[in-house]
Design a protein that fits this description.
Blueprint (H helix, E strand, L loop, with lengths): L19 E4 L2 E4 L3 H14 L3 E6 L1 H9 L1 H7 L3 E4 L2 H11 L9 H11 L5 E6 L4 H12 L4 E6 L5 H14 L3 E5 L4 H9 L7 E4 L3 H6 L7 H5 L3 H8 L1 H30 L1
Parallel strand pairs: 3-4, 3-8, 5-6, 5-7, 7-8
Antiparallel strand pairs: 1-2
Helix pairs in contact: 2-3, 2-12, 3-8, 4-12, 11-12
Length: 265
């Protein structure tokens, strides 16, 4: 089994991996899914606090304009998610990541791979969504216990109560679905060893599990066009992210490449 130190320093929750790629100033781990899972299993068994964030093109765009989010990611193991970051890796390094780990698929894969009966807490989503997501997880991956702590619609005043509830849950893993960058900032600012050992920002995962948002057919996912499927399903909400965001992302990566080439001269 690959030790966690092969992915990030012992005793650290940062994603400053020995094998990582710098994408827009963010260290993104460059390992296979199996290696990441083995390292996370080791971290869980040894009690190290670990934070996971998934990085896609939209996240990169946000990080370029949100300094707090970018700083927070320094405390996470950052995992490549989506065709955009693979295109960026090809443009900057000549080849894609070892394995692109779409969060919606990777998180269930991780849970199914972990030994022992773990307590998995869910925070986020609209009212009722986390409950339906927990029910789905309990059916599909019954090896663990799933506990809903709160939806994602609480203010600063209610935050202390949510954290108290989470502390009482004695969770091993905490899944936070608040969207980027809110979920990463919440994890970085509030969640430490009192509340669990592994903290994961999961984006729209609860909505997918609850059936609120349909996954693209497998053929579309294999073509790596799931973003186009989401745009077709929710054009009013997604057009800025994809129609405006994708060209902006590519322009930023091209600018990074040109800057790197100029600096190497």
């Amino acid at each position: 089994m690959m030790k966690a130190s092969a992915l990030w320093p012992a005793g650290s929750s940062r994603g400053e991996a020995g094998a990582s790629r710098d994408i827009a100033g963010i260290a993104v781990t460059d390992h296979s899914g199996a290696a990441v899972i083995a390292a996370l299993a080791d971290a869980l068994s040894s009690g190290r606090t670990t934070r996971i964030a998934f990085l896609n093109a939209h996240c990169v765009n946000i990080a370029r304009r949100d300094a707090a989010y970018k700083r927070a990611l320094e405390r996470f193991l950052v995992i490549p998610d989506g065709i955009g970051v693979d295109i960026a890796a090809r443009m900057l390094y000549g080849k894609p990541f070892t394995e692109n780990l779409n969060g919606t698929d990777f998180l269930p894969r991780l849970l199914a791979s972990l030994d022992g009966r773990l307590r998995v807490a869910l925070i986020g989503g609209a009212p009722g969504v986390a409950e339906r997501a927990a029910t789905r997880l309990a059916v599909e991956i019954p090896a663990h216990d799933y506990l809903v702590v709160s939806d994602g619609f609480f203010d600063r005043k209610a935050c202390a109560g949510v954290l108290d509830h989470l502390a009482l849950a004695k969770a091993d893993i905490v899944l936070v679905a608040m969207g980027v960058p809110a979920q990463e900032l919440f994890i970085a600012d509030h969640l430490g060893e009192r509340y669990g050992r592994l903290f994961v920002g999961v984006g729209a995962l609860f909505d997918f599990l609850a059936g609120n948002v349909a996954r693209a057919p497998l053929a579309i996912r294999r073509l790596r066009m799931e973003w186009a499927w989401r745009l077709a399903l929710e054009p009013g909400r997604m057009w800025r992210r994809y129609i405006l965001g994708n060209p902006l992302f590519l322009f930023g990566i091209l600018r990074d490449r040109l800057r790197r080439e100029r600096d190497d001269v």
